[in-house]
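stuck on this:

***
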Amino acid sequence: MTSAAEMPASSGSTLTLHSDPKNAHETDPLRKANGVYVTVHGHFYQPPRENPYLDAIERQPSAAPFHDWNERIHWECYRPNAFARVLNDQGEVVGIVNNYEYFSFNIGPTLMSWLERYDVEVYQRILEADAKSSQRLHGHGNAIAQVYNHIIMPLANERDKYTQIRWGKEDFRSRFGRDPEGMWLAETGVDYATLEALVAEGIRFIILAPSQALRCRPIPTPDHPHPEWLEVGGSQIDSTRPYRCYLKPTLDTSSSPLSAINEGNGDSNHSRLPTPDSLPYIDIFFYDGPISRDMGFSDVVYNSSRFAGRIGSAVRGDHRQTQLISVATDGETFGHHKKGTEKTLAYAFTKEFPQQGWTVTNFAHYLSLNSPGWEVELKSVTAWSCAHGVDRWQDDCGCGGEGGVWHQKWRRPLRDALNWLRDQLTEVYEEHGRQLFRDPWQTRDEYIQVMRDRSATNVNRFLARHQTHKLTAAEQVDALRLLEMQRHALLMFTSCGWFFEEISRPEGTQILRYAGRALELAGEVAGVQLEKGFVKRLGLAPSNVDDFKHGGEIYRQLVLTAQLGFKQVAAHYAITSLFTNQKPAQTHNSLPRKDAADKQSQRYHKKVYCYAANELDYQMQRMGSLTLAVGNLKLVSEITWESEHLVFAVLHLGGWDFHCCIQQFTGRRDYSQLKEKLFGALKQASAAHTILAMTQLFGEEAFNLQNLFAEERHRIMRLLSEETLTRLGQLYTQAYRDNYGVLMAFHRDEIAVPQELQVAADIALGHRCLMTLRSLEQDIADPQKSWSHILELEAIATEAKHLRCRLSIPDGKQMLEQLIARSLWQLLHDANGSFNADIQLLERLIDVGDQLNIDISLQRSQELYFSCLHSQIAPVCITSVGNEGDNQCLQLLKLGKKLAVDVSMISNQLG
């Protein structure tokens, strides 16, 4: 495909696509419009999936083996594009390209927040890519902003339009350190009111589908004031040039803004005419529709030369000085929808396109070189994924239907119900907000500053800036509740809720959960009860699923049951405390002073998702098979600053049985008496007697394992299963040892092995392998022990191969990958004079991964090696020729081959 000499020297490096020392400024297409330019725009976005009460994404089984869909798509798309491989014919890495340096891209703010939290390395690569592209393209970075949470803008009221734009701008500015030049509209949904808001907020350009244009013509000039309009409503617009869209009070199809002013003046003197640019406008790029569709729905992006050929087919041969071939699609296409295609892009960006003489650019840079010479008028209300304007998000238009089997009659009632709720919440916000905020709507617009940083210092600074008076603690809570109510009122309009065929899908359920949270917050602040009216309106939204019947029933079954309060958080804390407390039968106050201080730092302040848990007292005692814990806990929401002071008691009856009770803290004396009674009941070693005492003291309401948040419930289930699994593992291991000879005989004679025996071998060897890997992880700093563990792993691998065992050890796989990466980093950065031993150990670790056949990934190690190849390894090799470092060089190059990195350029230089 290419040689290392033709690739960037290291990951993150950029190419000078054109270089001519003679008249460089005149011919450099990065400085002056000249030739063919290519822009590939990726719209990277995931809908907000966070539980409204926990501010975290819970496990999504459909995304297995990953935790959730964000994580799955991240490993298939977002990360691979930050470290896109360019391979030679042997499948070796010759380049690692940060595709975000070449993409034009927008990344939804909700997705960027997740990336920042989940994988800061990739997050930083994205920020660095924008900075590098800005440097390469003379101040115009690749990133553009997005309306904040993917609301269909033509369906939003004016106030929500502005908030979405302002939140998107501020989120962008806080991340990329600059103002956005362009903005991506959700589903490219647009109307003239949206354009007016964008212009008012300083957005220079947007990207639309060719089907959204109505007509176009050259911009009128004094010499040519009435150029002819070209009708392009059937997607015939020439997408190789930018267009200027002038804003008018009404869409007058008979004249342009310039000619209208001219006619109004009744004066044909050109010198008195205003220039077109004196009128408000926004510039628009229309992506190439056929190529963009091919990217999403054909195999054109699986081969870089074919992709370049498809781009080339759009180049106009009319001898114009410059033209832009721009394509746009979901960024998730590259790696998630179409596996491995991030490699296609990396090669196309850095090799195929430059070979054609094309300049890889972005829209802002191209606009700086080539101001629009044409104007365009748009159809009234349109989007890129609906042939009926924006009916996909409000009507039964057929778009997104399940092959015509399911209707979408629920869309209009859902939209109407949410619009009604938004208007009711607006009244609540204005009435109560004006008592707390000088300008409630400006406060909402600037609330993004708190959403980005919820530290107490920042929140206090924000409230001080907007408050009408010095707020009391209770008023601060109400202020934050009101703002959170508005945040959820915007989240409930996220477009995904209407996109598909059924209201009860996860996307529809999610926006209803946001609505439910907004309802709850309104009730807490204003005491208004809006839920009944909302559910009644949802009852008009018919479901395709018999179990639900309509939206009201979906709300009752899937939204109300998912609501959480302080009691559930306290119950979660109480039950999990049984598995985190290591000092039973003690209270904090009974510990020596130093131990008490240590204990306080470890246990007093904990975080339960978005709640701060301050444990004021805790005591746990065991009696036979029973364990009882009683505690005094203060919980504070880090989002609304609401707090509760609670008492809990949790009884573990053994196995899966828990009985937990929660009540308000009513004073130290009451709490002391409660503890005394409960532990007195426990002394009788009777579960029934203890539960009776708990019921008498706390009431009938009780919580159990099922009430835990899913993540912790699964962790505790695994802990509770460990003893059973260990016992079963011993039984399987014994069965395997007792029947080893029989198993070998079956395999030797190529007779089908009884399933029971084969399963015993799989489990026994898998368990032995995992235990050995854990020991290796613990002893990796001790060479002697490490070698012993590696030899044991090799023996296991040999045994497994002979017996055709399938080792299923996902934890062990991850452990081995991390050990290899750690050892490589140590070798390259801190060898401590033991280079030969370290590299031999590392090579054997890689080999044993192959031998165990557990499909280890060496990507991170590969990236680490490649990042050092030219900056560290090559200089060492070049200076060590003929001396004692020569052996180290050869070993390092051999390691590179093992990691599938092309080191031929250095090998050839060494002769």
Notes: The CA atoms of residues 83 and 905 lie 21 Å apart. The two ends are 23 Å apart (CA to CA). The longest helix spans residues 710-738. The mean pLDDT is 89.
